[in-house]
TrEMBL record:
Residues 681-692 have a biased composition (Basic and acidic residues). Residues 1-38, 159-184, 681-718, 792-820 are annotated as: Disordered. Residues 794-809 have a biased composition (Acidic residues). One of its GO terms (cellular component) is Isw1a complex. GO terms for biological process: chromatin remodeling; sister chromatid cohesion. This is WHIM1 domain-containing protein. Residues 159-168 have a biased composition (Low complexity). Keywords: Coiled coil, Nucleus.
Amino acid sequence: MELELKSGGAKPGLTEGSTVNNQEIDSAHHPAKLNESIEDVSKESISAVSDLSSFGLRRSKRVPVTKSKLEKEAEEAEEAAARAKSERRKLAFAKAKAEAKAKAKALEKEKKMVALKKEKEKERLRKKKLREKEKEKEKLINQKKANVLKANALKAKSSSATTTLTKAQEQAEQEPPLTNDNWSPNMPLLSTAYKTQQSIISRLKNPNMRTLPYAGDIMKFMSFINKFYIFFDMDLLNLSFIDFEIGLDLYPVIPQEVGLDTMNKGSLYQDYIPVKEVISCQDKMNLLFLTLLRLLVNKESAKSREHKPLASIDELTSSKKLYSKYLLNVRENAKEWGYPSEWRSLPLDKIDLSKPKSQMFKENDKSDYVDPKIPEILTENIFEWHKNLPLTNESDPLQNSDLDKIGILALAPDDRVILLRSLINWCSSYSIKVHNEIHYLSHFKKDPTFGIQTQHVPRYFVEGPNVTYAKYIKLCEMVQKRLEVRSKKKYIKKLLAEGKKEDFSAKMKLLKELKDQLNSLNKQEKEKSMIENYNDWTKLFEGELPDNPLSNPFEDELYKLRSHEFFIGRIPHIGDFYMPRLHTYSDSPVTVSTYTDLRALEDILNKYSSGEADVQYLFENYGQLMSPSFKLLYHDTPSMIHDVAKGIKSKGKVYWYEMCSDAESLLYFISYLDYKITPPKEKGSKKKKEEGETSISGTHDDAKLLEEEGNDSLDPNESMEIEVTDPTINKKPLPKEYRFNASRLKLKMMQDFLSRFYYILKSFETLRVQYADMKPGKRTLRRVQRRNITYNDSDLDNESEEEENNDVEEYGRRSKRART
């Protein structure tokens, strides 16, 4: 609708007579509506020109943006920029404020450090001044003391007064301590040195070398009999290593490295040993078996330490079922006591019993504990372990019914060893009599001076005779000084003046006599005199220390349980050597035992090597009570220690070797050691060649050879020659490196001992041949010499044939099963 505006009411910008639509008026008063009208006009204009194809133009697809939206976006951008700017200003202000605060703190800290340094410097200067003042005071005091000492010295010289003692003089006047060293005749046998050493078996390769897989067990049997001899019959106290081999039907094995053959390889003992001896050895094994059974089953708690054998050789023929009642008890309790691993169902060399056989879940439960204080309430998994049960009754050697009839000979040789070893282990754990004896031997009022060690051996076999004598002489000098210092003390003088301390007074008189003897002697003569007057010096040792290096290492029962009686030498980088022989602690009348102190042992060795003692002397001193046979064994200790440290199983491995088994092979081994100690010398002079000197391994008499060579093995500058043509013998000496010097020295010590010990062993072998069926003693020997002797060879042959036939019949009757 059009309106005409009057002149008086017209608005500015409108001429008179102009007409305005109502829509325009509304849009003028309302901007929004104005914008909408503008948009309508623009749309109409756009539609008006939309059809431009006639002019050859293309219509644009771009949508025009209204002016109001652009303005809004611009305003929003400006607002966002303003906000960002204000935030940056705030951050810059906060950063500047924090930096200013940090600088202020640093300045304050620096001021404090400077102040602290000034205080420390003041304190240092103050202390320095104090130290200087103290030093000046000490100088003045020392100067005064020095002046006083000078004055006192002058007074002492003029008036013969005693001077003050210095620290060195005070130490000289103190009694030297004896507790800082081991003075006992035994030494601990430690294996720590072998941890860094390697042994090579081929270094000792020689024709007499044999492997002994069972040697460790037989050594255990002999050691048990030796230590607990009061339970065993005299027939078992003279057993040798060879007797065990014959009685248990065990045979040495030639090692592959040697590659030699012998006459007796593949033959049985009864093929080249008299049947009577074989039967005797087998009977002794049954006697040992019976004694161990009774020792294990016997429940008597009597603590008597008298020598009361539990079984005798005569009892073996008294009953057919002598072992059955004891074996019944053993079979009932054997599983509880502990079955040997060889008689169990699982092979330990293939199965590790420390690992489970199977488990219920594939992975272990690693969740948290419900209650950390009681971790046992949660099981990670359910495992099934190997059951290493004993063998079935059909294959279990202990269930063999023939054991009740013929004893240990009913088993195979290996099972015999296993059963004897198990019986000894069970006796050590469950026998009341053995427990009483162990309790007595382990509950003394004193301990060894070197502490409780696993094993110990005589000192003279570890350090050698020379070092042992030097140790004894040093002890004599220290005890002499202790007594002299003690005698100068005032309270001792007072007690001696009052007639007290009679024992000390007697010691001082004896010491004065010994000193008077030593004053006129040189050093070597003094040492010799101290050794000769050993009994007098031991009187001075009483009350000072319990042992001395020259006392008997087997006399004090304190060392009995842990002593290695069969030990004769330890060689670095090689191993240990043993000669197992019984009669160490027995109460037999044998007076030629080599288990004694160093002085007595040297005396025995010198008597036999010089010819002063012979076979007749050995017979008169009950030499037949000791076994005439022996074996020298070598133990590869370094290899065993390395295998144990690495966790390597020892089953199937051999660490024991035989070096010799009679006097002839011992002499060969003594000469063979020369190759290891020094390089072999060239062959002897032409004179020896003309005399047709034969090899030691030949058929000549061993004793005559030593007499002809004049004990060359005792001279360190000379060596006994071996003419060996066997290429398998290792003639190479030990390496020339410095670390093998100790090995050469110990080999020389062992060679010297064996060279003299050879004569004793040779005498025992001769005694066995000449006086086999005679009772020992001087009266028996004189009576034998008065007997009529027949020289008819045919009579002797007939008698020997009859005896041999009787022995064969008896052997076939009593040990048929053992022979098969």
